[in-house]
Fold this protein.
Amino acid sequence: METNIQNLLNILVGGITIWILCAGALLCLLIDALWPRKMSVPVYTIGILTLIVTLCSAWYQWLQPDLPAAQDLLVIDLHTLFFITLVVLVGILTILNALGYMQLHNDLTAEFCSLIIFSIIGMVFFFSSDHLLINFIGLETMSLSIYVLVGSHKKNFKSNEAAIKYFIIGGVASAIFLYGVAMFYGAYGTLKISELAMALPTQGLDYLPKTAVAFILTGIFFKLAVVPFHFWAPDVYEGAPSPVTGFMATGVKIASFGFAIRIFIGINVLDMPQIQNLLVVVVVATFIVGNLLAIVQDDVKRMLAYSSVSHAGFVLFGMLAGFREGRYEPFSSHTVMFYLLGYLLMTLGAFAILSLMIRKRSEATHYTDLEGLGHSKPLLAGLFTLFMFSMVGMPGTVGFAAKYSVISLAVQNGHIGLAILAVVMSIVSAFYYLRPSVTMFFKKGAGGCPVIQEIPFTSSASITFCAFTVIYLGLNPDAFIKLAKIAAF
Amino acid sequence: MDTYLPILIMFVIAGGFAGAFLLLSYLLGPKKPTDSKLSVYECGLNPVGSARERFSVKYYLVAILFIVFDIEVVFMYPWAVNYKNAIKDGHGAYMIAVMGVFFVMLVLGLFYEWRKGAMNWSNQA
């Protein structure tokens, strides 16, 4: 009896972040069900409060000297807590963006908020579980919510098309992922990552686990949208409502990398030369294709879609950079984690501004829509330029610190060729990142109303937060890199 | 022999139910014979039109609602079977609590779809 109560307490205290998220999401749903269409603003407030409380409890757990005992299925370690912080931050900024976006579009639905939180619950399970089946359920919870969110513009053709496309391709990706999981079970008779780590031989994998690794990697690559699994990304990112696009570009990738670090670095499976070669090919292809295709886009959202492809390549490069002569150097995943933090801030800032662009009740994110924005809204255009500078990697912004930490680690560990390619591609990316700013400031609009007319308070809050942190982390990244180092694998 | 007695009783009850309902429908049901009702059943019915018709999307909703409760019951059967053992081991309260959480979430979902009008067959939402 004693142990039972202890067990229950462990579950309650250990998974406190998930309990809070679940309660918040259900509360949002219930309030909307009880008073339909009347309580949207309170629902959003509750959603944001839920996420803030989650953030605080994650920090509280972080500061505990001894973390709750590892459950069978849920591992609350510093890695988990760091990634919880990241995805919850994504959630807060997304809800703030969405509130402004929906007020502008006059289409405030309360389910949006609870779907975001449900998706975050899925993400938390995805990267924090020690059991591959729970990881898979987390992946599905995350994806199913996002399929709905992508199609949340019910009367917009592009949004519907994007939702169906993402649903079908995502379903195939999940199936392949599950197939890989099943192969692991077939090879070792267990699905627990910690047991797999012990069961795996130190070298010379059999064909079955090798295939399993390749299949699971394929599933993750789909979610990350790295080349050659990126074909859905531009269409889906363009069709989805802008705040959702921001959420997909950051939250899904962060969760997938959290899982990738836990499984692949946690069980040393990447020490296999074949798998490393595979990663090298994917990274090189992603750098080249992502950056070159971003140049020819005419739509800012499509451009940012390709930019997120190339950023995913960069983060993957960060994972690869931790290997010295084929062996993983322990605790070097901190570069990946810091990069993801910087990436989420600059991307969500850019999407917060994109969410405000509206003309005739629909999104207007074509390059021609930006013309003259630098004159009508100079501050906003300047901040957009700041986020773009950060994505290029200008010194003084977080993008520089993030890219610097990845490239310096790569050079230390002897990946000179890839590091040179990364730098060259960053220079190439300056062309398409600066094009919106050039359009904003140096092209006169063809007359007519400017694309941004009013700025809701919540949007300006999220834009301010992102801009401030982009500069602050750019100027002194050390504290946060140290934080990431503590949590690194 | 004793162990098979429940099975015998189950057969009797099942047969009784089936028989009773057949008999009741024979006695109480309205009888309006038509040509197609009286014709011999062989290899299905004559097609009335194309099979590729558009169905109301509401069927989809009903199917989803059905699946939710279907799976709930599938989950509850093994739970109920194991519950006896759990009491013996002193896990009773724990198992009740876990199932309670699951059940509350499910009921909340039911409440949500009810309030949202998912069970209204007519068009008003």
Q: What stands out?
A: Residues 2-487 of chain A form one domain.
